[in-house]
Structures are given as structure tokens and as C-alpha cells.
Amino acid sequence: MTWLSNDLVERLRDVASRPELASDRYVILRPIGRGGMGSVYAARDEQLGREVAIKVSNAAAPTDDLDQRLRQEARVLARLEHPGIVPVHDAGLLEDGRWFYVMKLVRGKTLADHAASLEHEAARLVVFERVAETVAFAHVAGIVHRDLKPSNVMVGQFGEVLVLDWGVARVLARTDRESGADHQPDGLIDGTSGGTRMGTAGFMAPEQAHGDSSNAGPPADVYALGALLFWMWTGSAAPPDLNEVSRSLGAVSPAPSRRLAAIVRKCLSHAPADRYATAAELMDDLARYRQGSSVSAHRETTIERAGRWLVRYQTFVWLVLAYLVMRVAFAFLR
Amino acid sequence: MKKPVLGLLLGAVLGAFDGLTALATPEVASQIVGIVIGSTLKGLIVGALVGWYAYRVQSLSKGLLVGLVVAAFFAFLVAAMPQPDGRHYWVEIMLPGSIVGLIVGYATQKFGEGRSIPAR
Known about the structure:
The complex is a heterodimer of chains A (334) and B (120). Chain A has 334 residues and is of the alpha+beta class. Chain A folds into three domains: 19-104, Phosphorylase Kinase, domain 1; 108-299, Transferase(Phosphotransferase), domain 1, CATH 1.10.510; 304-333. Chain A has helices at residues 6-17, 65-79, 111-114, 121-140, 206-209, 218-234, 242-251, 258-267, 279-290, 302-312, 314-333, and strands spanning 26-34, 38-45, 50-57, 88-93, 99-104, 108-110, 143-144, 153-156, 161-163, 170-171, 174-175, 182-183. In chain A, the strands form four sheets. Chain A has a five-stranded antiparallel sheet with strand order 1-2-3-5-4, covered by helices on one side. In chain A, strands 6-8-9 form a three-stranded antiparallel sheet. A two-stranded antiparallel sheet of chain A has the order 7-10. Chain A is elongated. Chain B has one domain (3-110). Chain B has helices at residues 3-20, 32-56, 60-80, 90-110. In chain B, helix 2 (32-56) runs antiparallel to helix 3 and helix 2 (32-56) runs parallel beside helix 4 (90-110). Helix content of chain B is 71%, strand content 0%. By secondary structure, chain B is mainly alpha-helical. Chain A binds chain B through residues 313, 315-316, 319-320, 322-323, 326-327, 330-331, 334, and chain B through 21, 24-25, 92, 95-96, 99-100, 102-103, 106-107, 110.
């Protein structure tokens, strides 16, 4: 009796699990990754002669919840046309009736792998702001991501930043102006039922962690963005206690400034009402921070304000000082 | 406030202050009124030119350079006029004068209302 090698078993398993596409337009090349909801394969689009990525549901049956989620994800992605979101090219059914969708094949690293190369604050904030901008765009479109984390952010070869995995995204109901009634946009469902817990520990807002994902609105994404910012400085997931957040941020070297730490703390507030209402509000405060202005998350003392002014306009201050020193020197050298 | 107006005001104030520092020089203290008026006028002209440039061109480095060159040029004209004792105060006039130009150049680039880009 001959035993099969592990390598061969792995290859057989890979071939056996490859999806059977009904059309011959796409040729599956290799698996890229497998998540809880679906598997992603690199494939070749024979019609257009390019490589694409195909995400296939892991569901056992086409009627499964996972299959519906994949369909929802494809529809959400199709609604969100933004440079920070992977575009969907096509969608369809496998021979066994499960859903798949075709998207751009992104070459790059996840933020989890890329973060080590972001040494300086400015480089980290550039990546972070692109993530926040994408999430802000989604919020305006009435969509909440609900699972932002380093492995769901991809940094491409040319520095492009993409937010991935919208599989547990929630589509917010729109209120009809005339009737006042709430309704879901065409073809989209809310995405959760009460008591469902969705997200990733350490990046999940308290309201999600307590199983209230159906009420997780934009502030839940703001929490995750704060956790992402915390992770970019400390390399670890955010602790639930805000004092511990402050201690951890103060312990890293170089530590973020007080104003930036305050922005992180505001995002990580336990109550959604204490956070920024949307990712756009967070971005506004970050823009003020980067310009050297005061931020809404931090009430400055007079000394802090003076110090910030001196740093912001240090060229001006140095010029005035140089002038005064010169005048005094001339007076004494006479 | 428009940048040229800011340059004008700042140039006048700094020019007047620069002129008043002549009080520290006993040899010329008697002519202080003339010095302050002349220095203020010089500041007004430099401020207006530098402010106008800042209104047209948004570039900190170019603004600083223009401030330096314009102020140094006018300071040179003032320093070239011999004092009653026959001396020329080249360094004492040109060095602080040039720094005042840099200050006006910096301030007009950083602050004040610039030219709005017309919509096409």
C-alpha cells in the first residue's frame, strides 16, 4: 500500500475544492485566501485577457446565509464606487447554485504586513486617512463596514489603500421624505438580525461586542478606526479601558502627541454618542491636527496653545527673534 | 484681509519700529522723526510689493526670497545715503532691514486672503 504525500493530498484538496464555473470565461488559477464567508481565487478573464479575483461562497447550499451574505457583499461593493474600494466586475452562479463575484485582483500587502514599514507619523497618517476617507464615503452612501481591522486593509504596490471584506457591512435604512417611513435601498437587506455579534475582538465597538450588531451605525466604524490608529502605534488591539489606552499610547516610542492620543481616545469611547458621529468628522479633526490647529477631541491649556502656535509658526518666531537679537546686539556693540 | 493690505500694514508697523530703534544710537537720535518717517515709508513700499507678490504667487520659499531681495534693495538705498557724520551704516541698516523683509514675506504667504482662482 502506497501512502500519498502531504503535498499531494493538499494539491488534490485544492483541485477538488475549486469552484465549478458555469461559463468558460474565467479560468481559476490559484487560491488566494479563505475566510469564514468565502474563498478567494486568482483567475484569468479569457474574454478581456486579464487576471481577476473571484470570491466564492463557502456555503454548503445556495440558500445558506453565507451565500446571501456574499451576494449582499457584491451588491454593496457595486454601490460603492471609490478608489479605496475594490471594484466588482461581474457576478454569477456556480454550477452548484452558489454565488460568486469577480473583482479586481489587488496586488500588495495587508496593513498587518505593511505597517512595519510605516516608521513616521506622517506616513502612518497618510495610510490611515485613506482608510477613513473610504469609510466616510461608505457612511455617506448609508453603509457601515463593521469589520475594520489591519488584515482588511490592503496597501497596493503603488501606495493605493483599499478597504476589503464588506461581507458583514450593514446597509442603513433610508427615511422616505414624503411618508417618513424607513426602507432599505433596492436589493439590499440590513445585514443583521438582533442579537448577532459581528466583527473582530479588539477592533469591534462595545455595542457590537455586546451582540447588538443590528444597531451598529457609523460610530461603530469610528470605534474600529480608532482601534486601527491605536494598533498602528502600539501593534496591539485596543483595550476596553480608556485609561489603559492612554497608558499604552504613552508607553510607545515615539509616543503620539497629546492631541493625537485624544483623537484615538475619542474614537474608542464606550458610548457611541461620545465618539465622532461619522468617519468624516474624524477626518476633519485629523486634518486640523495635521495643520497644527486645535482639535475637538482635546481641550488645550493656554500653555499648550502657545506651544502649538510656536511650533506651527516657528519660522516666523525665529525670524522675529533673529531681528530682535540683532538689534540688541547692535545697541550693545556700539 | 487681502495680502497686499496685510503687507502694507505689517511693512509700515515694522518699518516704524525699525526706525525707532535708531534711538539706541545717540549720534542719530536728533534726527529720529525723519528716520521713523523714512523707515515707515520704506516699510510701506516693501510691504506693498511683497504683499502684491504673495497675492499673485503662493509659494513660501519664493515669498521669502522676494521679501529678502526687495527689503535688502531698499535698505541698501537708505544705507547708501551718508549720515551727517559722513559714515555709512551698511550692516546696521541692511541686516535688520533684510530680516524685516523676510518677516513680511513669511507673513504675507502664510496669512491674508489670496487671489481666488476663477472658475472655468
